[in-house]
Amino acid sequence: MVGSLLLLAMGMLFGWIGALQYLVPGFLVKWLSFEKIRPLHVSSVVFWIILAAMGSVLIYVQEHTGRKLYSALLTRLQLSLFSLSIPAIFISYCMGIFGGREYWEFPPVLALPIIAGWILFLINFTRSFGTFKQQPVYIWMWLTGIIFFLFTFLESYLWVFPYFRNNIINDMTVQWKSYGSMVGAWNMLIYGSSIFLMQKISGHKNDSHSRMAFALYFTGLFNLMFNWGHHIYTLPTYHFIQYISYVVSMTELLILGRIIWQWKSSVSKAAIHFHHTAFRFLVAADIWIFLSLLLAVLMSVPAINVYTHGTHITVAHAMGTTIGINSFLLLAIAVDTLSNSCSKESINEKWITKGYWITNISLFIFWISLVIAGILKAKWQMSTEKIPFSTMMLQLRPFFIVFLFSGLTMIAGFFIILYPILKKQISCYLVYILGERNPAEEPIRGTISMD
Fold first, then answer.
1. What gap in Å lies between CA 213 and CA 219, rounded to an integer?
2. CA separation for the pair 373, 395 (Å, rounded)
3. C-beta neighbour count of 282 within 10 angstroms
4. How would DSSP label each residue in 424-441?
5. Backbone φ, ψ for residue 101 (5° rounding)
6. Mind listing the pLDDT tens digit for each residue in 245-304?
7. Is the separation of the CB atoms in 382 and 321 below 8 Å?
8. Which is nearest to 159 in space by CA: 147, 181, 176, 183?
9. pTM of the model
């Protein structure tokens, strides 16, 4: 969890440098040009999500079962594999050594430790349970997410085989399909952990066994398996794939309707529990789920997708889901799991509260600037007038400036949130290293005080 928070901090710094290079061409070009900064940013953020999702599952599995994990050794090996591969990936980017695709632009050989670590994760998770019968919905979400992430990660490397690589349409179809499903897979891990946390705060255990919980789970699973098709509307592939994907995308309206229907109760819960730091992040994520899902449903309509594809609207959707949903949910989990993980000293909530509001307000401005820039670019793309690309980019420059500075304040907000959490953990590690305290005597996982 601590490693994932450090990756979040790195990802934000790389993202801000990339945004600055968008406005000031040539900035740091000798050391970290844009083709290096972009994968550094993307990989940092993706690994922040993956490591935090894994950490939350491993911690909450122990809380759910009341027992330790099947094997502490497997956990250490898993962490060691990721701790070796991630720095190696970043070094390869800085040296200009590429060879992969999109999310995974590093040489394919560096994917092997990630695959091995994920297999250890799967073994440790499944062996930590005596049975999967009568388990709550979040257990099935975790299991589904772990299996499908491994499947889609392997699928994203099918391009190494000539059969796929030599046909551009098949190659792009498999790539975009695998990435779309992969996001759904890690969402299963995050949403399952979030349900566990919400149950932990509210104390209502029956909610995770309800028919509605499993109905929403199967809707999410259905989308994970088939929703990827809206990524390939612009590819000349089989039409039945596009039709199925369109229908599946529209099932998200069920989730959207559910959010609206429960909005009143969500607000009332916020009034009761808003003083809990973790719950504040859950409330923020709920709002961003609504905004991102609304944008996603619009983007899934083929007639609209033709305009939005390849514009900043796609980036806005990615930022809204990655930051507003995934990052806020994972920060809620991080606050919970790290609150009492190494000492009884509480985290400074005043810092987190300030950072919370700065981050949310900045993210909304950041998101709106991208949406407007995307609309203007979409208009340019479909226009019959032959307006030069450079002219269009100059028209978007004011929105890029807003994007840059709102991103800077958002990063400042995140650092204000991370500072008290990481300060406490690092202080504990220094105490352990100096031998002044035995870590075995400390709590192994965090709890939320309901006082």
1. 10
2. 9
3. 22
4. HHHHHHHHHHHTSS-GGG
5. -130, 140
6. 777 776 766 665 665 566 556 666 666 666 678 888 988 988 888 888 888 878 877 788
7. no
8. 176
9. 0.86
